[in-house]
Amino acid sequence: MSSRAFDDPEQEEQRLAAVAQIRQFGDPALRTPAAPVAAFDAPLREEVERMMRIMFAARGVGLAAPQLGALRRLIVARPGGEEEEEEGEPLALVNPVVVWRAEEEEVGEEGCLSLGEIVVDVSRPVAARIEARDPAGDELEIQAEGLVARVLQHEIDHLDGVLILDRTSPEQRREALRELRATAPA
Ligand code: ZN
After folding, report:
1. pLDDT tens track of the chain, all 186 residues?
2. pTM over 0.90, yes/no
3. Contact between residue 59 and residue 4 where contact means Cβ atoms under 8 Å apart
4. From the CA of 59, how far away is ligand 1's center (Å)?
5. Which CATH number characterizes residue 24's domain?
6. Maximum CA pair distance of the chain?
7. Catalytically annotated residue among 104, 155, 171, 175
8. CA of 112 relative to ligand 1 center, distance in Å
9. Which residue(s) pair with 97 in the sheet?
10. CA 153 – ligand 1 centroid, Å
11. What number of CA atoms fall less than 13 Å from residue 186's CA on the CB side?
């Protein structure tokens, strides 16, 4: 989820190089449901490390494997967001499932590393409980609220081929599509 420019030219160059590795709107991988991960092996842990590197360099707060073209149910996120990096270790969730959602929803602005500069309003449950495995195969249960709940729900949506364009108002969706078509590479 989300990205914006760095002031420092070197960091900005690295950000753009990371974003260039992320599939962009129009790529079929973003619309294809991903398959469960079956093997908790060294290649999986290498894939997680690569996703973390790209997420940090791209200045994102979350990244899903299909955004790198891997149709596997795997996401990474940093719970504290960029300003609160000390607040929590980055998370890697394998085969995550939302097992409970709060009834109350809240509207928040979301961007996506696969949608360029697009930002739209998305209404989501304010809290969610997620079951998953860690890259070693151990079971995890996360009770998330606020930004963490929003980021995890956004990334899990990617595993089902769902984008924020599907979750915003028809007006904002139309406007975003117009902008995406105007900026799409020829
Ligand atoms: Zn996204």
Report:
1. 766 788 899 989 999 999 999 999 999 999 999 999 999 999 999 999 999 999 999 999 999 999 999 999 999 999 665 555 555 689 999 999 999 999 999 999 999 999 999 999 999 999 999 999 999 999 999 999 999 999 999 999 999 999 999 999 999 999 999 999 988 665
2. yes
3. yes
4. 12
5. 3.90.45.10
6. 45
7. 155
8. 4
9. 131
10. 10
11. 0
Report if residue 69 sits inside a domain. Answer: yes
Instruction: Identify whether 1 is part of a domain.
Output: no
Residues with CB under 5 A from ligand 1 (ion): 112
**Total residues found in the chain within this entry:** 186
Q: Check if the beta carbon of residue 75 is closer than 8 Å to that of residue 158.
A: yes
Number of domains observed in the structure of the chain? 1
Count the alpha carbons within 13 Å of 128 in the hemisphere toward its beta carbon. 22
Ligand 1 center to residue 64 CA distance, Å?
7
Give 139 Cα–ligand 1 centroid separation in angstroms: 24
Domain-embedded: residue 44: yes
Q: DSSP letter string over 22-77?
A: S--TT-GGGGSPPBPP---SHHHHHHHHHHHHHHHHTT-SEEEGGGGT--BSEEEE
131 is catalytic: no
Please give the residue range of the domain that contains residue 108.
Answer: 9-183
Cβ atoms of 166 and 153 closer than 8 Å: no
